[in-house]
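[Q] Does anyone have a clean structure-token version of this?
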Amino acid sequence: MKPSMLRVAFLLALGMGLAGCASSSMKSVATGQHSARFQTSISHPVDIAYLRYLPKDYSATAGKRWPLLIFLHGAGERGTELSKVAVHGPPKLIQAGKEFPGVVVSPQCPEGQVWDVEGLDAWLTDLLGTLAVDPKRVYLTGLSMGGYASWDWLAAHPERFAAVVPICGGGSTIRLKLPQGARREALKRLPIWVFHGAKDNVVALDESQRMVEALKAIGNQPKLTVYPDAGHDSWTAAYNDPALYDWMFGQALK
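[A] Here you go.
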């Protein structure tokens, strides 16, 4: 066989082998909570390390589509140690043995940075294409810095989410009031439940209240829960409340 023909045969065999490995890895995705990574440079460089929880009966080939919950941590959990992401919120509860009725993904923001909403949105597009999740049942929640990012993300892409739960966060009220057309309608319809501690001396309660009032001004009817004795840590009580998950997983895009 000529060298050129040998090269073609080798490349074909390599391609078939890689395709086989990709197919195998899709079928053998481990359930439970494990580390994962998303990288792309299509619009701008995005590199997201995250914890991915798959329910014990998850299967990518069974035809079922699962709810997807995205959790965004606060400033204290930034860095490269992915285990830090599980010190609060849903990933912490999963480590303690809680089972969720859907897929839960918890990304980590790099040290010294804030959440890149457009990068997160590119990641969400990838998740919708690679996991057996329902695009009509995507839920977003975040605390502190992640609460701010939750407000930013829902303002930029409200049509993405079936419900959003910002905790002790805040944001730009003008981004909620200015949109017109389809995005404004999506903002008006989006179910939102806000949590905050009355004694928060890191992010003042007023930050959440201003966002709630801005939503009301465009016709949205958000829920607001204020814990009268809580400081900045309003998330422990919120994420430990079964009513939050009953409400959240009961929402779906029309």
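[Q] Thanks! Anything notable?
[A] The beta strands are 32-40, 46-54, 66-72, 103-107, 133-143, 163-167, 193-197, 223-227.
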